[in-house]
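COMPLEX REQUEST
Ligand: GPU
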Amino acid sequence: MDVRNGMGLRPLGTSAAEFEQDLLSNLYYRRGTTVESASTQDAYETLALTVRDRLAERRVRTAAAHYAANPRWVYYLSAEYLLGKQLEQNMLYSGTDRIARIAMKQLGLDPDEVEGLDVEPGLGNGGLGRLAACLLDAMATLDIPAVGYGIRYDLGIFKQTFKNGAQVEKPDDWSYQGNPWEFPAPDDRQTVFFYGHTERDANGKTCWIPGEVVLGEPSHMLVPGHGTDTVNIVRLWRARGSESSFDLSRFSAGQYAEAVDEAVHAENISKVLYPDDSTESGRELRLKQQYFLVSCSLRDIIRRFRLRNTDWSEFPKKTVIQLNDTHPTLAIPELMRLLVDEEGLNWDLAWTIVRQTFAYTCHTLLPEALETWSVPMFERLLPRHLEIIYTINEHFLAEVREAFPGDVDRVRRMSLIQEEPDRRVRMANLAVVGTQAVNGVAELHSELLASTTLRDFAELWPAKFHNVTNGISPRRFIKIANPTLSSLISEGLGGDEWINDLDRLAGLEALADDESFRSRWRAVKQANKVRLGLGDPESLTDVMIKRFHEYKRQQLKLLHIITMYHRIKANPGQAYVPRTVLFAGKAAPAYHAAKHVIRLINAVAAVIDADPAVSPYLKVVFPPNYNVTLGSLIIPAADLSEQISMAGKEASGTGNMKLALNGALTIGTLDGANIEIRDKVGADNFFLFGLDTPAATALKNNGYRARDHYDRDPELRHALDSILDGKFLGIGREVGESLLNWDEYLTLADYRSYVDAQDQVDAAWQDTDQWTRKSILNTARSGFFSADRTVRDYAAGIWHVNPVKVGR
Ligand code: GPU
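STATUS: Structure written out below.
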């Protein structure tokens, strides 16, 4: 039965005229204005609400279906979500994209101008945050009952600007105009404790007497599925001072500012996203954020469990909590605390429940990204949790000693507490010990986790370790981002079922040899370059879009650019393949080495731009402030995808998948998911270069000397010398020195192989038909990288959950 009919509500219409009526009604009643006096902001918010209403109706039915089914739920805990703009997606998913535009025009509104006001909530840093959003999208699309939990940061990832070519960060007050996609749920607010001490009562029961009390206020955004009525939610917590943090005595004494000090302090918890990617920041406020997220979310999960269940032993049957990296790992000791201290369960039963409930995804191999917390700081902030971790550790280490008698070193390595050089809590170890499944995010990554980073644990519990190769939302990253290519694909395949069944792209293989299809494919790519605003659409668009990190090796791409520049300077008369090299990405504000690379790229771009002998063939562009929105414009325009990390360092990568799906050819190392991309698209359609992981590891172990490569290779020497000699506006000496004297990530060792592979790219580009064929084959063979496949893998191998269909 239609819930609205049951409630006596008028059904929302599906025609443009009805949509127009609803726009007018929302404009009048929700914004308090009329078409004649509405601002563009009024029009935008009204449009958003009118679209949202359609999804709200599905949401109500979803909640009813889920309540009736009392299913096993997936709760996805993540400190980051990069959801991307909501409007276009929600118009597509609600089937209102066409009628909404007609209705706006009827009302004299410019749809592009109105839609232009939609803002991207930048509540994450990079791949990890965007993966969370893609998985939520796929879970809803596959009708899996799921809730995402996160933090509603007031300030998202900083806005990147350039000043004299250097990165300058500006705050991202993303919701200062409000956020029409959000449903506040103040009734579900939770209380969170910090600091204080523990006490034991006469029965030996432990009690935590907190020193600070903060409120967590939730709101949620809708997560609709595509081609289904399921609408899940992502619930985001915002910190508020509690009543006790308002000091009435001070207020009465006229100390108005002091009276609210504590409340302001509390609200700092959700004030700003930490802009670190793949490095830990180790700050107390960050640990507070993590506990805040975990504490609010677990209480909410338990509240939801109790709506339909009473028996704690049922909890793991109804609940799986996926930890997105170690950031939410405090959920493990927190659930122990809730079960033992608050619910009175005995330790062993509580531990059984906890372990069955959680699963952990690791997203890195970098030692500096494995979070640890200083014991004294941890103890001050979360005294009870430290006791619980000690007890978990005692039981766990006994198990290790039993499995490996006499292996003291192993016990030291596996302990949840690092002792030397200082005492720290090891969050990754805790995450492995407290979960039923641990997974890496690409085949190579999962293998390396089990054989290196988490080897001791894989030896103890081999069955706990899984691989789930990452995936991307085909809705967001081809259907919405690349509408013209999507239309061509649908035409070629005779339908658009591929959007929810990406393996169907294989049907394009047959068209790769069809000359007219190829020329249309090429025309789409060129139109996307024009849309992006790149000058010459005939030029090879070579893109490197990702966070700036030394292991990702933007410096290697830069050495190649400088080499091309030198070649053109040396032989100006020759014909060169024209290239537009596009960089985009942010560096963590305190990551100086990465910021030096950014500055040098901008300097090299300026020098090339000013040189008329070179600029016809080579152009370097670096649009600021890479985010989901900008990525969605760049990806469809790319010919070449740069995936050039040092082998064994990139856990997976997901930009690599988005680019291949949109018909870019990859130049890449055997790292992360590049390996699987190459396996799928075929070695002929991928430019491979560089050391593989065993060779890179061996080189590092045998005393790598970057300078040997500099001494041996004249082109490399020329490129590095030009940096060291200040030929690029005097910028970048730090970059040159670091490469020559240290080169942590084997950039110079891979230089020759990389430049040679780039020469093969140039040669391949000149055969336009063959290149286009390869481009089509990249798309045709990328179906595996759908996040729908990723979620199916999680559902079958780790979550053991079933879909729940939402009835009409
Ligand atoms: N990743 Br750890 C992040 O974006 N941030 C992090 O803090 C950590 C990992 C990335 C990996 O670097 C990337 O290889 C992977 O594709 C992505 O997570 C999603 O798994």
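REMARKS: The first strand starts at residue 73 and ends at 77. Residues 482-698+753-785 form a domain with the Rossmann fold fold (CATH 3.40.50.2000).
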